[in-house]
Structures are given as C-alpha cells and as structure tokens.
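Supplementary Methods. Inverse-folding protocol.

Structures were first reduced to a discrete structure-token string of length 82. This string, shown here, constituted the complete conditioning input.
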C-alpha cells in the first residue's frame, strides 16, 4: 500500500526545471525600444526598457525592437550587502 500524497512517508515531488509559479504578483513586460528624437528627428535606441503604456504616454513615435523582459511584481531596493 502506498502512502497518501503529502504524508510523512512520501518523498517530495520532483519537478523537471523550475518549481510551479504560485505567486499572485502581477507580471510586467518591459520592452526594448527606439523612438524619434523630437529635436533631431532621428531614431534613437533607448537605454532602458519600458511597458507599452509608458511608451504611449511618453513618446509620440516609437517602435519595439526585441523580446520583452518578464518581471514579476515591484522591484525591490538595491542592497549591496546581500
């Protein structure tokens, strides 16, 4: 007879790769992009990544240039001693 799932005699489940995501934090997609500089009229590659909503609010003309970076929840503060 096999022990019931979660009982003390049963080994923990083995996952191939990462553990299943059970967090309730929102997922944020940050995109690399380029935009038209209003002073020169030239396309400029941005030095940061932004959400689509931020791009719509900030730039009149922009374009996504790559795959998004997936971020979960709010970023924590930087801790150099961690």
């Amino acid at each position: 007879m096999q022990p019931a799932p979660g009982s003390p005699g049963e080994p923990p489940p083995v996952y191939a790769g990462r553990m299943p995501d059970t967090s309730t934090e929102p997922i944020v997609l940050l995109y690399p992009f380029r935009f038209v500089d209003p002073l020169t009229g030239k396309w400029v590659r941005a030095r940061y990544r932004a959400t689509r909503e931020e791009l719509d609010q900030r730039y009149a003309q922009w374009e996504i240039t790559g795959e998004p970076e997936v971020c979960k929840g709010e970023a924590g503060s930087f801790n150099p001693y961690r």
